[in-house]
Each structure stands twice: as structure tokens, then as C-alpha cells.
Automatic annotation (TrEMBL), chain A:
Pfam families: ThiS. InterPro entries: Beta-grasp_dom_sf, Mopterin_synth/thiamin_S_b, ThiS/MoaD-like. This is Thiamine biosynthesis protein ThiS. It comes from Infirmifilum uzonense.
Length: 78, 612
């Protein structure tokens, strides 16, 4: 077993009710971003985006033990 | 007969105290819409080319749009514009102010102020009248005190625009202020007002512009307000406003830190939206807004200070300050002095790095509040090093020899996004209409989501696309873009409101064409002014600050990153091809023709040879 860290930002923290979480995952299994995401986020895909280890990622992006996922809102910059 | 627009522009000559009313027709209104569009066209037509921006003949243009002041999401804004004393090019900014509402209610869509008063003066514009009143008793006073005095005298139902000591002292970072925290005109528009001895403008009136379908307009506006409140991002926005961007920028390594040397700040948690929420006292905003962004806290002296992302990033991480209450004090004082908080943060950051690098003898340390406060006062009151910095970063750095650490484009300091690892955002700053400003093409969120290190044609197109919407449509309407960008209110709402106000049947494409016309007109203005002043125009003027090419990040997720000059230049070329400008960044003759600017082509050809 190992861990995947997920960090949430902006209004996403209200959707999921937390600012981060750590998931326990098996080193032998294959995961995708979609498979580890809280499904409550899926209706908001146009308003949010994902980074895996600070690189842009789509829902089918493979996720491995030790990865850090950021779920961020698209914001407008004043 | 126009609907939506008042169809009247008020001209005031301060030198001889004469006024005239210019009535315009539907073709002008539809070509330039309002706000920035009106300002750019007026400056092109009436400003003598090559003029010293502090000449009495400079034009201070204050302009609204066809839905300004009407009920509707965040429509209480106006544009202030002039030839910039900071950049010597086109300068403008927008302000949320009751001034926008009451200028429209006074019967005007725009005001043009020319000439210079012999003594300090303020204007009261109401019921078709203009009063010139002495302002000696206000001169020297801060903007908060002055506005309170004027409001007491003229009543609550007024809109007031004014300057503080920075504008009076012609500090080239001076803005125009309103309502104790609303500020606009970063390229020194407040200094232009000061150069005319004009302390304030008070608007009042009660005449709503005639609308095509007032009942349906009102209904749709109410629906738009309700729609905003239903958006998933609304609740969090009401908690933190733009302040949540501190955490976002830190997470993405773009938070300006230590004079844009880094993109992450080790103390960011002390100054972010969560820190603000813990001490938040309330929030306030512009007229007609149901998602006010001005969160206020008490500063370290117990006074109210209204914070947003740009202020806190530039007066916080960029100068190494990690105490939100102290940042709040600097921010409040800047608003009282009437100086641009972004420009001030950039000047202080530059001074600290110049001190560290022994470019200057003065000891100014990052994070040292007292020296930052003292230097801020010196800038506003033009003392010592402050006097030099009051001339702007470009001037000061060339004089001192610190060009490589001066973070500006065309003389206007960069607002709060570090671009060592963000080439599209760097391009956005490079080709912004007023110098380095985020308001035109804020592309960084899209860029972070799509890939930081590529230099693509797609990125160049995205900058052009966002410029037309943010810097074009919203600046012409004049309406705040935040309902769209922050809570995702669909753009179609604005088209429908516009059509109900004016009786026109525009599509979104009609707006984009008008936006492209105005962005190209503004570029023509820059070229004309630089040619007329003998500075010349070249492609290098659209380059971002040297620092992002030469001094890599030393920490954070993108340690070692810096921009690549050749690839940037290639992307700049792609941008030029989208906007129809030549390799020098000058609008092609065919582009000017296509956009209905034949007269501009003819005029511009007398200053420089155009490419066909």
C-alpha cells in the first residue's frame, strides 16, 4: 500500500468539504485520475482543472503511488 | 434617436471655464460602444500628436457604456483615460464608482476635460450644469477625507472621482480614486488630473437613459442577478473574493515574490484568503454589484482597509512582507494618497533589490515594513529616491542602471503574476494595451491548465481571444468582468442586456469586431505617439521584462525556469499574424481598412510607412 495526496483549492474546497486528503492505494493496481476523484466534482469539469505533480492532466491520466494531485478552479484574475 | 446611450459627451475646458456638448450619432456609438472605445477614439481624434502628457492640452476622458449605471450585474463602472505620463502611450483604467451611475443620470455618456485651471478646482456636474468650485481647502488632503467633505456638501446621491496627494504631486503612479478604495488609471491618469489642478469631479442627476425595452431589461437584469447567486463558485467567492488567488498563485508558482525573483513565498499562508477570512470585518463593492470583491479588515492601527489579490501580492510577497495587518496599512495609505498599489509594490520591490545589489546606497530590506512605509511616503511627496521612483520604474531604472531588475512593460509595472514559467501570460503582458496589465488577457489560468512550457500558436490565439473579450467588450460596455470570469455568468447575458437596452440585434461576433477595432486603434495611438515623440516603434516594445529571460527561479516547483527569448519572439509573431499587425507590431494598412479605420490609416501613414 501507498498514498496519493489530493489538494483542493478555492470553491472546490466547499464542494468536497476539505482542503486536502490522502488516499491509501495499492501499489499493484492501476488507477486513473477519474477513478480516484470524488464524483461530486464531475459536473464541474468546465470550471475546474487538474494537475498531477504540477503537470496538466486529463481524467484518464494514470495515477501512481506517491503522486500529488491538485484540483483547482479556473479563476479570473481581477 | 439612440436608446441605451445618452448620445451626449460633455467637454470642459478648465483654462477658460467653457463647456460644450458634443452630440454623437448611432454610427459612432455602434463602432466604439463606449468606455475604452470612446476614450481611444476621442484621444486619437483630438489629442495633438506627440503632446507632453502634462501639457494642458492632454485630454482626461471619463467614459461609460450603454448599460453602465443601469440595473444589471456589476454595471457601475467607468473608464478614465488620457495620454499616459508614465508610458507616453495610451493609458486607461476602470473604476467602480457611483460616478459612473450619476454621470449617466446627469445625461452624459462621457466627459472630456482639457486645459488647466489656474488654481485648484473641483467640478460639480448636474442637471445640465457645470459648477467650477475652488478646491484650495481640499488640495493636500487625502482622498478619504476629501470625499467625505464633498459628500457632506453635495449629499449622498452623488458620485465622486478624485485624486490625493500623489496626483497633486504628479507622481506618475497616481490613480483616480472613488469611494475609499476604488481605484483606476494605473498609467498615471491621476497625475494628469493633478496637472490640470483638478481635485475632484462630483456627479449628480436623476435622469435614467431612455431604453429600448425598459420592462424586459429590468426583468432580465433581475434574472442575471439571481443566476449569479446560483453558481457553484458564488458562496466561496463571497467568502474570499480575489484573495483566494494568493493560495492559487502559490500553488502554481506564480506569486510575485521578492521583486518577481520567485513565484513562491515561504510565508504565503500568513497573507492568503484563509488568513484574510480569519480577520475579515466585512465586504463592500461597486454600485450594482451582488458579488462585491472588496473584503476589508482592520490594519495594524485599527483602520479599515479593503484588500484584494493584486494589492496583497504586490505589497506583500513582492516586497517580502508577511503580516497582513501591515500590508493592509500600506494598502490603505496608498488608497488615501491615491497611488497605484501595484505600481507602488513594484517600485518598493525594485528598490529593495537595488539596495541588495548595491545599485543604490539606501538601505531598504525586503520585509522591513518601516523602510517600505518611509519610501512610500517619499514617493508620494517626491523626496530623495522617492522622487526618482515617482517618475516610474523605466525612468528610475535607466537612471540608476538597474534595468535588468525593473519589472515593467512599456513603463507600466507588471501586475501580480510571475511569468518565469508562463510564456502566454508573459505575452499577454507584452502586448497589453496599456503596458503590463492583467486586465486585458488574463490567460494564466488557461495556461496552467494546458501546459506551462510550450510556446504555441494556440497560446498566441488565446491571448488575442481574451484581449477582445476582457480588454475589448467589457472595457467598452463598461461592465465588470468578474461575474463572467469568477463565477461563470455566461457571456450571452451581456448580449441580451445590450440588445434590450439599445434595441439593436447584435450577436457576440459584432462585439468581437468592435473590440478588435478598438484594440487596433489603441495600437495605432501608441505608434503615432512614439513616432511623433521621436522614440520610434519596434517589436522589442512588446517584450516582457528582461528578468524573466535572464534570471531563473531558484526555488518552488519550477526551479530553474525562465523564458526563452527566441521562442517568445516566435509566439509574438504568431500573435501579430492573428491581429493583423506587421513584423514591427504595427497595424497593417489592410487591417485598418478591414476594421473601418480608413481615416486612421491615412493619419498614421503620415508618421510611419505602413505594410500592406
Amino acid at each position: 500500500m501507498g498514498k496519493i495526496k489530493i489538494l483542493y483549492y478555492g470553491f472546490v474546497t466547499e464542494l468536497v468539504g476539505k482542503t486536502f486528503e490522502e488516499l491509501d492505494v495499492s501499489e499493484e493496481k492501476t488507477y486513473t485520475l477519474k477513478s480516484i476523484l470524488n464524483p461530486i466534482l464531475l459536473p464541474h469539469l468546465g470550471r475546474i482543472f487538474f494537475l498531477v505533480n504540477d503537470r496538466p492532466a486529463e481524467l484518464e491520466h494514470p495515477i501512481r503511488v506517491g503522486d500529488e494531485v491538485k484540483v483547482l478552479p479556473h479563476i479570473g484574475g481581477g | 434617436m439612440l436608446k441605451g446611450w445618452n448620445g451626449r459627451i460633455l467637454w470642459i475646458d478648465l483654462s477658460n471655464r467653457k463647456i460644450k456638448i458634443h452630440e454623437y450619432d448611432g454610427s459612432f456609438a455602434q463602432k466604439y460602444i463606449g468606455g475604452r472605445g470612446f476614450a481611444a477614439r476621442i484621444l486619437w481624434d483630438y489629442l495633438p500628436p506627440g503632446l507632453d502628457p502634462f501639457s494642458p492640452h492632454n485630454l482626461l476622458v471619463i467614459a461609460t457604456g450603454p448599460i453602465t449605471g443601469l440595473p444589471g450585474p456589476s454595471t457601475g463602472k467607468l473608464v478614465v483615460a488620457a495620454k499616459s505620463p508614465l508610458t507616453h502611450g495610451y493609458g486607461d483604467g476602470n473604476i467602480g464608482s457611483l460616478g459612473a451611475v450619476y454621470m449617466r443620470y446627469a445625461g452624459y455618456d462621457a466627459l472630456v476635460v482639457t486645459g488647466k485651471s489656474e488654481k485648484p478646482v473641483y467640478l460639480h456636474i448636474y442637471d445640465g450644469k457645470v459648477e467650477f468650485s475652488p478646491a484650495e481647502d481640499l488640495w493636500g488632503r487625502d482622498t478619504f477625507t476629501s470625499e467625505r467633505i464633498l459628500r457632506k456638501k453635495h449629499g449622498r446621491n452623488t458620485g465622486i472621482l478624485l485624486i490625493g496627494p500623489a496626483g497633486e504631486n504628479k507622481v506618475k503612479l497616481a490613480t483616480v480614486m472613488s469611494q475609499e478604495g476604488r481605484s483606476g488609471g494605473r498609467p498615471g491618469i491621476g497625475a494628469v488630473m493633478g496637472s490640470k489642478n483638478l481635485k475632484a469631479i462630483v456627479f449628480s442627476g436623476d435622469r435614467l437613459p431612455e431604453l429600448h425595452d425598459p420592462e424586459e431589461y429590468k426583468k432580465l437584469a433581475a434574472e442575471a442577478y439571481a443566476e449569479i447567486k446560483k453558481k457553484p463558485a458564488y458562496s466561496f467567492w463571497m467568502r474570499q473574493g480575489t484573495m483566494s488567488t494568493i493560495q492559487w498563485s502559490q500553488a502554481n508558482g506564480v506569486l510575485p515574490t521578492y521583486n518577481f525573483s520567485e513565484g513562491v513565498f515561504e510565508f504565503s499562508e500568513n497573507i492568503d484568503g484563509n488568513a484574510m477570512e480569519r480577520v475579515k470585518k466585512g465586504q463592500r463593492g461597486c454600485p450594482n454589484c451582488n458579488m462585491p470583491c472588496g473584503n476589508y479588515i482592520l490594519d495594524d492601527t485599527g483602520e479599515i482597509s479593503e484588500l484584494d489579490y493584486e494589492n496583497v501580492a504586490m505589497l506583500g510577497s513582492n516586497i517580502g512582507l508577511n503580516d497582513l495587518a501591515k500590508i493592509a496599512r500600506l494598502n490603505r495609505l496608498a488608497d488615501m494618497w491615491g497611488i497605484d498599489t501595484i505600481g507602488l509594490g513594484a517600485a518598493l520591490g525594485f528598490a529593495a533589490e537595488a539596495s541588495q545589489s548595491k545599485i543604490i546606497e539606501e538601505k531598504i530590506d525586503f520585509g522591513d515594513f518601516n523602510s517600505m512605509l518611509e519610501l512610500s511616503e517619499d514617493i508620494v511627496y517626491r523626496r530623495g529616491l522617492g522622487d526618482l521612483l515617482a517618475e516610474g520604474l523605466e525612468h528610475a531604472s535607466l537612471k540608476l542602471g538597474g534595468d535588468e531588475i525593473a519589472v515593467h512593460v512599456k513603463g507600466l509595472s507588471v501586475s501580480a503574476y510571475d511569468c518565469h514559467a508562463a510564456p502566454a501570460m508573459a505575452l499577454s503582458y507584452g502586448v497589453s494595451t496599456v503596458g503590463a496589465h492583467h486586465k486585458d488577457a488574463w490567460v494564466i489560468s488557461w495556461e496552467v491548465a494546458h501546459g506551462r512550457f510550450e510556446y504555441t500558436r494556440q497560446k498566441a490565439f488565446r491571448v488575442f481571444e481574451l484581449q477582445r473579450i476582457r480588454g475589448g467588450v467589457f472595457e467598452m460596455l463598461v461592465s465588470c468582468r468578474l461575474p463572467w470570469v469568477e463565477v461563470s455568468l455566461e457571456l450571452d447575458w451581456y448580449v441580451r442586456l445590450f440588445n434590450l437596452a439599445t434595441g439593436l440585434s447584435w450577436t457576440w461576433d459584432d462585439f468581437l469586431i468592435a473590440a478588435e477595432r478598438v484594440l487596433t486603434l489603441i495600437r495605432a495611438f501608441w505608434v503615432r505617439e512614439f513616432q511623433a515623440e521621436g522614440k520610434g516603434w519596434h517589436r522589442g516594445r512588446d517584450y516582457p521584462p528582461k528578468k524573466w529571460f535572464t534570471r531563473p527561479l531558484t526555488k518552488g516547483p519550477f526551479k530553474g525556469a525562465r523564458l526563452d527569448i527566441d521562442r517568445y519572439d516566435e509566439m509574438l509573431g504568431a500573435y501579430y499574424s492573428y491581429v493583423g499587425w506587421d513584423h514591427r507590431g504595427i497595424p497593417r494598412a489592410s487591417t485598418l481598412e478591414r476594421l473601418g479605420l480608413t481615416d486612421v490609416r491615412k493619419d498614421l501613414e503620415s508618421f510611419i510607412q505602413l505594410t500592406y
